[in-house]
Design brief:
single chain, 16 helices, globular, mainly alpha
Length: 328
C-alpha cells in the first residue's frame, strides 16, 4: 500500500513482479515443454561457454566497456595500479570488502547460475548431483577468471576515486568506506552485469520457453543499458541548452565502444588464434565477423531478431549459418 501510494501503480507492478520472482521456486516441477526448453537452454550454455578457452579469451573485448565507463586514460591507470602493485593481495582485499564481487566471482552470469544450481538429489543420488555441479562449475572457471581481469581493476579504481574525492569534514570514515564499496560494485554491475537473482532482467523471469529465447541475455542487457545511458546523457545535455554536437558526443561514444569497438576486438581475437598455429590472417573473414558481431550487439536485446538478423547477414555474405543459441 505504501509503495502504491508513494510511487504509483506502475512502480507497484514492477516491484510486485520482482518480489514474486525472488520468492519463486526455481527448481520446482516443470511440464514436458518447459522441461525440454530448460534442457535445451542448458545444452546451449554449456556448448558455448563450458571448457572453452577461446570464449574465455574473448573477454578482452570488455576493455571497450570499461573505457566507456571510466574513460580511456582512467582505464589505463586502473590496469596499471591493479597489475603493477601486488595483484594477489589486492584481489583478497577486494573480495573481503565487497560481498557482491566475491559472490559474482563464483557465479558471474544468470544463465550459468540457473544451469548449475540444479536441485540436489537425496540419499545415494545427492553425492552424484553435487559432483555434477562441481564439474559444471569447473568448466566455467576460465571464463570467470578472464572476466575478473578487467572487473577487479575497474572496482578498485572507483573505490579509490571515492576516497580521493571524499570530504572527511562531511562524511565519517565508515560512510566514506560504504560509499567507496558501492561505487566499486556499481562499476562492475554497469560494465559486466550482475548475475544475481535480484538483478535479472524482466525478460529472463518468464517461462522456460521465454528464457530459451533470451539465452546469454545478461551480456546484451549490459550492452543495451550502457548505450541507453549515453543516449540519456545526450538528452540531458540538450535539456540544459547544449548544441547538437554536445548532445551527439556521448551517444556516438556509446555506439563506438559498445557496438563497434567490442565487435572488432572480438573478431580480431578470433582471427588471431588460428594465426598462432601458422594460418594466415584472413581480412575478409575478419571484416565479415566484425559486421555480424555489430548486428549481434545492436539486436542482442531484441528476442528473435537477435538470432535472425545476424544469421541473415551471414547468409547474405556467403558464410555458413550457425548459432548455438538456437537448439537445432
Amino acid at each position: 500500500g505504501c509503495i502504491l501510494e508513494q510511487f504509483g501503480n506502475d512502480m507497484y507492478s514492477v516491484m510486485s513482479s520482482w518480489v514474486e520472482h525472488q520468492w519463486a521456486n526455481q527448481n520446482g516441477q516443470k511440464g514436458l515443454v518447459d522441461g525440454w526448453a530448460s534442457w535445451a537452454r542448458t545444452a546451449m550454455t554449456l556448448g558455448a561457454l563450458s571448457y572453452r578457452l577461446t570464449t574465455a579469451l574473448l573477454n578482452v573485448a570488455n576493455i571497450a566497456t570499461v573505457s566507456l565507463y571510466l574513460g580511456p586514460q582512467n582505464t589505463i591507470t586502473a590496469l596499471h595500479n591493479f597489475y603493477g602493485r601486488g595483484m594477489s593481495d589486492r584481489c583478497k582485499e577486494i573480495f573481503s570488502k565487497s560481498v557482491f564481487v566475491a559472490q559474482r566471482a563464483e557465479v558471474f552470469d544468470a544463465n550459468i547460475r540457473e544451469n548449475v544450481q540444479k536441485q540436489v538429489g537425496i540419499g545415494k543420488w545427492k553425492k552424484l548431483k553435487e559432483t555434477e555441479q562441481k564439474l559444471l562449475m569447473a568448466g566455467f572457471k576460465p571464463i570467470m577468471l578472464t572476466d575478473m581481469m578487467l572487473a577487479l581493476p575497474a572496482w578498485q579504481f572507483e573505490y579509490e576515486r571515492v576516497y580521493r574525492e571524499a570530504d572527511p569534514t562531511k562524511r565519517t570514515p565508515e560512510q566514506i568506506e560504504a560509499d567507496a564499496v558501492r561505487a566499486g560494485d556499481r562499476a562492475v554491475r554497469k560494465c559486466f552485469g550482475s548475475g544475481m537473482k535480484q538483478d535479472v532482467n524482466a525478460l529472463q523471469r518468464g517461462s522456460e520457453m521465454t528464457k530459451t529465447l533470451t539465452t546469454f541475455y545478461s551480456y546484451f542487457a549490459v550492452v543495451h543499458n550502457m548505450v541507453a545511458g549515453k543516449v540519456a546523457e545526450g538528452r540531458r545535455i540538450g535539456y540544459q541548452g547544449g548544441d547538437w554536437k554536445a548532445q551527439a558526443a556521448p551517444i556516438a561514444n556509446g555506439v563506438l565502444c559498445m557496438y563497434i569497438m567490442q565487435s572488432i576486438i572480438d573478431a580480431a581475437v578470433r582471427q588471431l588464434i588460428p594465426t598462432l598455429t601458422g594460418d594466415e590472417w584472413d581480412w575478409e573473414k575478419f571484416w565479415k565477423k566484425s559486421a555480424t558481431n555489430i548486428a549481434d550487439n545492436v539486436f542482442g536485446a531484441v528476442p528473435v531478431a537477435r538470432d535472425v538478423v545476424p544469421r541473415f547477414m551471414e547468409a547474405m555474405m556467403g558464410e555458413r549459418v550457425q548459432d548455438v543459441r538456437i537448439p537445432i
